[in-house]
Design a protein that fits this description.
The chain has 472 residues and is of the alpha+beta class. It is built from 18 helices and ten strands. The chain has a four-stranded mixed beta sheet. Strands 4-5 form a two-stranded antiparallel sheet. Strands 7-10 form a two-stranded antiparallel sheet. It is globular. It starts with a helix and ends with a strand. Bound molecules: protoporphyrin IX containing FE. Protoporphyrin IX containing FE binds next to helix 12 and helix 18. The site of protoporphyrin IX containing FE has 27 residues, from helix 12 and helix 18.
Length: 472
Amino acid sequence: LPTAVQSRRLFSLYRVLTECFSPSLPGPPSLPLLGNMLDLTRGHLPSHLTSLARCYGSIYRLRCGKTTMVVLSSAQMIREALVKKWPDFAGRPHSYTGDLVSGGGFSISLGDYSEEWKMHRRLVHSALQRCCAQSLHAVIERQALTLRQVILDYKESPVDLSKDFTVAASNVITSLVFGKEYNKSSAELQRLHDCLNEIVSLWGSPWISALDTLPLLRRFPNPPFSRLLKEVERRDELIRSHLQDCKVSQQIDLQNQDIHSQEVQLKDTQVHMAVVDLLIGGTETTAAWLYWMVAFLLHRPEVQFNVYNELCTVLDSRYPRYSDRHRLPCTSALISEVLRLRPVAPLAVPHRATRDSSIAGYFIPKDTIIIPNLYGAHHDPDVWDDPNTFKPERFLEDKGASTRALVPFGGGARLCLGESIAKMELFLFAAYLLRDFQFLPTGNKTSLPDLKGVASVVLKAKPFHVIVRPRP
Ligand code: HEM
């Protein structure tokens, strides 16, 4: 048997040979020192990375300091990495700022792949599943009816619904986690959201990410970074007081479920960070999707009419249930098409190669950062006809399309933890809204919402107003 030293040498030889014989990854030219950093600070990053994919292919590399990033822009490659070879790509990049916002790497979304992380995710996932089976449908129905009343109170005056959608989506999560709902004017809810939004937007800013790539900068004063630290402190105080007040154990039961039987115990920080994960992951995403749906429907009123007709014909006069979705193909097609054109988490969350591996025949060394460009995959002209056009009917004509090429929730070990909650929310909120209301533009064609949007961690539509008319 080879000794440990010999095995290490053999392994290094194997690595060098694999690296030499596999083709080198294409990619745009990189500047000395800066690499491709300028490419990463573009305004609409998902669309910029997608246009690079048209030049360099569905897999290409970008350099940022010493780090190599590999961008995947087709569903096939994203699936190969995230699903087929999931153990190789289930890691998250380590970063100085990521550690600070995730309580030292204890969050599910930013924590690296490890036995402890797997246990954390498994426990939170099963707590969510149990809670969803017991009460999710009723919670969403209640929120959909509350939203209905809020909209009725606008009495057809032009409104921006973004905040109402955020409150509705947020209340679903706070009902599950804290057993508590808020109204739009609640100062408590406002404080929590302002704080979480501020953290997400500050953390995504180049001033902060520069601290990860150029550690020297940490020695200099950096006001956005000081603000980030203050907001993280505020977030932790707010969550701590909510957890104490609302007796989490009666709700999602993160602290007690299954834990004793498995003789494992979540640390307080893990419970705390799981709550942060669910609030951040589950609010802006769903709210942004609802806002996009209204924006697209204003551009194509006939789609709105078809969905309304379907809801009236199939359901007669009752409200939909989630189990009705298979009998409502137009509604389901609308949901899939909005998820396709505007995946609200357009670049997912970066992954890290946990060991040497390969994607599409290219050698990918350990610690390479993988960016799953979901936006690019959903605009892939090899898969989708007329990829930039809003056409829900494509899902009626080709029923296999969604399973083949839609990846809005990522996949594999890091699949969105709230996928089943989100799917039920999108369906019920959309069906309730479109059964009860007609969404109308506030003026002529020039008043229609911009459809490009603003991309950060979440891809959002630019603010717009709409008239919401109750259906007879
Ligand atoms: C992660 C999409 C709603 C909680 C993700 C990821 C995507 C995604 C693309 C990254 C997957 C990856 O890293 O490969 C969406 C979309 C939603 C949605 C499109 C709605 C339209 C939700 C909801 C929740 C949630 C409602 C919570 C209740 C999470 C969490 C993660 C995550 C905790 C981190 C998972 C991990 O790192 O293991 N989501 N999400 N998401 N999402 Fe969602």
